[in-house]
Amino acid sequence: MLNIENINVYYGAIHAIKDISINVTEGEIVTLIGANGAGKSTTLRTISGLLKPKSGKIDFEGQNIAGIPAQAIVKQGISQVPEGRRVFANMTVLENLELGAYIRKDKAGIKEDLNSVFERFPRLLERKVQLAGTLSGGEQQMLAMGRALMSRPRLLLLDEPSMGLAPLLVKEIFSIVKEINQTGTTVLLVEQNANMALSIAHKAYVLETGRITLSGDAKKLAASEEVRKAYLGG
Amino acid sequence: MRAITKKDLKIAGACVVLYAIIEALLQMDIIGSFWELNLILIAINIIMSVSLNLINGYTGQFSLGHAGFMAVGAYVSAIITVKFHLPFLLAIIVGALGSGLLGFLIGLPTLRLNGDYLAIATLGLGEIIRIVILNIPYVGGASGFMGIPRYTNFTWAFFVCLFTLFFIKNLVNSSHGRACISIRENEIAAEAMGIDTTRYKVIAFTIGAAFAGVAGALFAHYFYIAHPASFTFMMSFNYLTMVVMGGLGSITGSIAGAVILTFVSAALASWPEWRMIVYSIVLILLMLYRPQGLFGNVELTSLSIFKRFKGGSK
């Protein structure tokens, strides 16, 4: 579905992503794990068009999307939940979700998806007319995910969904990610909480200072000595 | 486009009544020429502050060069009426197109800048516009463009102002307006939602500039003269004060800001040296006690008192 070949991304003179290749198959949850500054978020932002790769190919369902503007990539069916949630704080929950469907024109379909988001996140329904900035961190994460789902993506990019959340909430968020995946959306997940990420993912890539050092089946990686030592605390 | 609601009719009715009362008072000479001048200034200032609010308040792009666009509108419209002897309405439209076009050309490169950088760039551009005009003999250069006929009266000012309010209110309530607001709220998230942020920033900037041109046309055709010294940085700052005072992202706020500050400066007309002091004190107090502005980003019609009358439905 998504095939990334040897991309290189720079921040000015800093070579942030070095020759990364990633492959995401339809229906999977793929996770990128690694320490701070390894380049996980950079990779995600490159896929969603917020950053442009200097070289390399990003192929989504047979089309090269490397370097095309973010709004065109959303139209192709890729939606991103940005790091730190970034909800529109002075807008209501409903308005946030409506903006998620900004690129769509099919009113009936939007309504249908709005209902399914409310079904998945009953808490958002309760807070429909509340300003998004007044929600708790967990609720904002749910809103950011709901908002991304409103564009009816085929590939959902999740950037650190567990950031700043209580352990119980992290569990809840991850089980929702799993559910979203089971209803047919492919997920590419960037996460520092390697334990949680590997527990729900099918495939994983380990990033270290801009390079992929390990990759493969998530269960196998979780069991491997190297990963356990470096990322799983023993 | 949604259908016209009962509420719209009520507001339209209220506007007509307001116009009729003021016009009658003017005709009967109960309102003298000094306050007539101020009423017209209020209308012009409302156009300026609401159009600036579209850029600064709704789209969140900090522009400090609004007076520059007003100057372009003033001069272009004056050329139309003085040099080509064409009707006033056409002059207003061409003035708006001129400043809108300039806003578009300036917006394209500068709106890639953020925050402070954009503020400095627009500040500089406002001054450049003024200096360029100062050096064009065709429009009078440093002595100003003289002999402009007085076409602006209360009726023109009132209805052009009303049109501006109608246009901008509908814009910010449309999906385009929603896109602009989302840029203010969070540009990265807006981009991730598939909103072409550069495009909407340029649209907001262009429309804001065009309406500043409209205000400039009214201004020049009231005072018989368009003078470069009328469109300095202080003027841009004045409008910014109105917008911030009323509340970034509130049309009612901009109206209130324009009305209050025009009245304050009229009331202090005999003590001009006090004006800036009062302005500054008002701003300091406002920032201390109500940093979001008088209205924040809400409209008068959506305040809870009004909602109760509507049965609290929303």
Annotate the secondary structure layout.
The complex is a heterodimer of chains A (234) and B (314).
Chain A: E1 2-11, E2 14-24, E3 29-34, H1 40-47, E4 55-60, E5 63-64, H2 70-76, E6 78-81, H3 93-100, H4 107-120, H5 122-126, H6 137-149, E7 155-159, H7 167-182, E8 186-191, H8 194-200, E9 203-208, E10 211-217, H9 218-223, H10 225-231
Parallel strand pairs in A: 3-8, 3-9, 6-7, 7-8
Antiparallel strand pairs in A: 1-2, 1-4, 4-5, 9-10
Helix pairs in contact in A: 3-6
Chain B: H1 6-27, H2 33-58, H3 66-83, H4 88-110, H5 115-134, H6 154-173, H7 175-185, H8 187-192, H9 197-220, H10 233-246, H11 251-267, H12 272-289, H13 304-309
Number of strands of chain A: 10
Low-confidence stretches of chain B: 305-314
What percent of residues of chain A adopt helix (DSSP H or I)? Answer: 25-40%
The structural class of chain A is alpha/beta
Beta-strand percentage range of chain B: under 5%
The separation of the N and C termini of chain B measures 20 Å
Please, what is the average pLDDT of chain A? 93
Helix content of chain B: over 70%
How much of the sequence lies in strands of chain A comes to 25-35%
| Mean pLDDT metric of chain B | 89
Number of domains of chain B: 1
Radius of gyration of chain A: 17 Å
The total beta strand count of chain B reads 0
Shape of chain A: globular
Shape of chain B: globular
Biggest chain contact: A-B, 28 and 19 residues
H-E string of chain B? HHHHHHHHHHHHH
Order of helices and strands of chain A: EEEHEEHEHHHHEHEHEEHH
Tell me about the largest β-sheet of chain B: none
Number of helices of chain B: 13
